[in-house]
Amino acid sequence: MFPNLSQKTKRENIKLLSAVQISGVTFFVYKNEDGKICLKSGEEEKLQKAAVKKMISLNPRISKLLERYRIKPSIDTKTLKELAGGHMNETCKVAMGILSMLAENIKIGINSGTIKEASMLHDLGKVLIPSKILNKPAKLNKKERKIMNIHSTLGYELLKTQNIKEETLDLVKYHHQNLKHDGYPILTDRQHPSDIGVQIISTADKYSALRETRVYRRKLSRIESLLILYKEVLEGKIHKEVYNALLGYAAQFDK
User: Which domains does the chain have, with CATH numbers?
Assistant: First the structure.
């Protein structure tokens, strides 16, 4: 059903379309120059690298961004596979759980397909972040933090070359923003991403990250994670209704 694209010419012309979930695992969906859909093959890593290289070649802003931060262009497909099978997959589950728990008047205009797609693709930009920064077992210094913070913009720029909706792109780019708009990247007066949409992805991303074991800390419990996020509610960074929806989902999920 899904062809194995072993020929070099076809690998060079594949195109990242989206991501899908199958049995709780996230896979990236590709299309070759003949229009055939490719989901997974024995050369999955080569497909991923070819797709990312193609995206970089199609958008000069990516290379300029990497040059500005003195990042050596390299593609960490191991990180991409770990993200797809772990964090991005879990973020998607939590985001869809939050959405299902939100009152109808709060989620007016929010498209569930957009939330699902954005949550599965939100950290794609980390594939270009040096692994020594991604996997540092200690607090990042100021320079490293600046580099880490461009992953959302890198993801946005990579996905801009693909057939992906603007609403999804905005959610990927601003998934580290908050209600006070003091997150990253900085918003201009002309930029108005959906606060609720961003809140759903951002809150799901944070909760998923807190509930995972990281190289610099242990996995936190549900209560510990929710208490940390509640502090952001009090600080005016997380929408109270989005947090309440997370509470409902987390309690239901743990059962």
Answer: 56-254 (1.10.3210.10)
